[in-house]
Amino acid sequence: MVERAQPIKPRLGPKRDFAPWADPAASPLVRFERVAKRFGAISAVGRLSLDIFAGEFFALLGPSGCGKTTLLRLLAGFETPDEGRILLEGADLAGMPPYRRPTNMMFQSYALFPHLSVERNIAFGLEQERMPKPQIAARVEEMLALVKLEGFARRKPDRLSGGERQRVALARALAKRPKALLLDEPMAALDKKLRAETQFELIELQAKLGTTFVIVTHDQEEAMILADRMAVMERGRIVQVGTPAEIYEQPSSRYVADFVGDVNLLEGRLTATGASESLVHGNGGVQLRIAQPVDAAPGALVWVALRPEKVRIGLERPTEARENALAGTVVDVGYLGNLSVYKVRLDDGALMTATLSNRTRLVERTIGWNDRVWLSWPPEAAIVLTR
Amino acid sequence: MRKGLSSFNLVSAALGLAFLYLPIAILVIYSFNASRLVTVWGGWSLAWYRELLADGAMLESAWVSVRVALVSATAATILGTLAAVALARGGRFRGRLLFTGLLYAPLVMPEVITGLALLLLFVAIGLDRGFWTITIAHTSVTLCFVAVVVESRLLTFDRSLEEAAMDLGAPPLRSFLLVILPLIWPAIAAGFLLAFTLSLDDLVIASFTTGPGATTLPIRIYSEVRLGVKPEINAICTLMIVLVALGVIAAAVLNRGRASRRAEAVDLTAKL
Lengths: 387, 272
Ligand SMILES: Nc1ncnc2c1ncn2[C@@H]1O[C@H](COP(=O)(O)OP(=O)(O)OP(=O)(O)O)[C@@H](O)[C@H]1O
Ligand SMILES: [Mg+2]
Known about the structure:
The complex is a heterodimer of chains A (387) and B (272). Chain A is 22% helix and 32% strand. Chain A has 387 residues and is α+β, with helices and mostly antiparallel strands. In chain A, strands 6-7-8-3-9-10 form a six-stranded mixed sheet, sandwiched between helices. Chain A has a five-stranded antiparallel sheet with strand order 13-12-11-14-20. A five-stranded antiparallel sheet of chain A has the order 15-19-16-17-18, with no helix packed on it. In chain B, helix 3 packs across helix 10. Chain B is globular and about 70 Å long. The A-B interface holds A 76, 78, 97-100, 103-105, 107-109, 111-115, 124-125, 128-129, 158-159, 161-162, 172-173, 176 and B 157-158, 160-161, 163-171, 174-175, 178-179, 182-183, 261, 264-265, 268-269, 272. Residues 39, 42, 44, 62, 64-70, 218 of chain A line the site of adenosine-5'-triphosphate. Magnesium ion binds at residues 68-69 of chain A.
């Protein structure tokens, strides 16, 4: 894996140089060691290892049913692993019931207690610790301010909007100052606009508190926006861990490339690989040049992965000799406001997508349906995948 | 189409209701009869209620019935609630279906059989028949009613509420007391009232399991009526009807209040 010291995502203040995962001396806050969990014949989590560091905003990303919730529930103590260990600050959590673990969970359904007011919901965890009353009151007030719900202390949950409920759930889970906050699809029930706002607030909140957040989501965009690092899961296993930029730019497999963002995959055979460049013989009979060594023997089946926004589309053949170029016919043009999406049927029958951002007001599209076009990209734009 | 009741429907409804409530209405009205003869109307009077207050044996039986009902309903409520919690929250433990079936079977079991079976049991273990055998019998019969009411309430809310309570530091028992109990108490109270009224008016099982010195009100009424109906019986029956009706109405109100509030909440979520 490529070690990149800095996450690309802009961060507030001290988060910028934050990369404990790159430091071999750092010890993780949470460590999963070959953890497996089965439900009858179904293996929900299979011998999975993962380190999460203190202060991280960590996202677990994967399709429905891949074991994300199970992983979170294992950490919270609602499920016990069949194999392996889960360590928190180096100590094995085995046998520690959920009500003793210094983690708190924000449930997908929020699970607010309907018979208690907002403030009593938030105070619930503190009351279990037998915290003195004045201190509880102060903490509740602090939490209400944190999630901007000052006027709502005495409301019952059924008199709140979806977004307000979500914030109460967040405040309740944060009130005990957990070592790690576990969020299971916290924004699944919010509409798109509110979700975008909430994502931003979560980032701010996490930066302010410095608490470790572990969030589960099946929305790749959300994971990329929120997380310092993310893990992509497939059927109970982690297929890649890295910063959003690493995952997007250097996916380790076709599965990851396809799951995180859109990608064009061109199948071919590796013809040569050197220190800084490789050549792939595409199925369409074209030679593709990639500015990257490939860990495979010549003749191996490989896939050239190329993000649609890195493809140039033009009516003329590009003149630059090093440039990869493929000819095809436009079969579909989509206008998305900020972007135009072109679907191009290559001469060998494969379909490729190119997106162009609409920088100027689009009065007349220069490229349209059934136009003969050239798709091209520099060797640095694509990567080669062997899996 | 015409709204409301057609005359045919009106007549059928009236017939049905008359069939159901005419006997009871007659009984209630005649409890205020001034005449000594049950079948002859002699004007309004509270004489039989006064007579009832002076009838020591009848009052004694009423007291037995109330005590049996209170104790058995309390026991049935506790045991029934525990069974309901086990059923609704125990997950898929082995034999769950069997347990469910076993718990609900007494709902449809003929009372004669239940009564006889309990009698045989008490004889076999050599328990002296009396107050406690009736109480035990009533507990065992009404328990499943409580379980049904409480379980249906438990199934309406999210499992993650308990997990949230535990996650916030409350051990299982505290989670139950602080979060689950406050949410299901209307159902528990309704179950209690149901058990109480069922016990109060049971004749069959009580007569199988009764013993000397433990004559419940239904048993006393039944045996006195065989010697001829006294207007005083009408009076005590009227009082019982009032008590039972209050119990049933309270139970219904408790459950309905919850249900409509839930509907409101669902409404609210749907609007968002
Ligand atoms: N209590 C359970 N009993 C049986 N099977 C379960 C249980 N919990 C989860 N599973 C199974 O384990 C697998 C992983 O489930 P999990 O809930 O962790 O998925 P997920 O990644 O959170 O999916 P989603 O995005 O849909 O929430 C699924 O196949 C699921 O059916
Ligand atoms: Mg899930």
